[in-house]
Amino acid sequence: MAGQAGRLTRIALVVAALGCCAATGASSPVQTLAGRYSSHFQNGLVDGSTYWSDDVVEIVPVSANAAYVRAELQFYNGHSCSIAGVAKAQGDALVYRPAQTPDPDDHCVLSVRRKGASLQLDDGDNSCKSYCGERGSLSDQTLPLKSKRAITYMPRLKGSSTFRDALTEWRTGKPAHP
What we know:
The protein is built from four helices and eight strands, in the order ααββββββββαα. The chain has about 180 residues and is an alpha+beta fold. Keywords: Signal.
């Protein structure tokens, strides 16, 4: 009888915890942010000419508390930022800390979260500058949430060296290519 009472107590605690999270709307950013975000915009060069650019962020769950994040952002005069890795869920954000950065003086910490009607990427005080060209930055960059789409090319994405390298870094804690 005592075993059954203990089991019922555990079940009641699990149900209460699930009811709590459902009632407050609490959910993991791994699932809520998963998808492809993009922005198509007119960019420019210093000579005054213009061209079209695309910013793209992909978020793919790899576990209950982690997601692959890849960002390709375009900036004035052809500069860009490019970063990819497995970010861990922390509160309402996905946070990526590379095992090693191109610049040993960088201590890159990139957070990805919902901010109002936008998906926000933020590295605080430009801590991930080594992933960007001269005019690029991962500080407070946003893409519209309404641009979110399902990733329809998942086999190609998961077959890419960028995805495989990110998973290797996540599993080992070391860069795939030191």
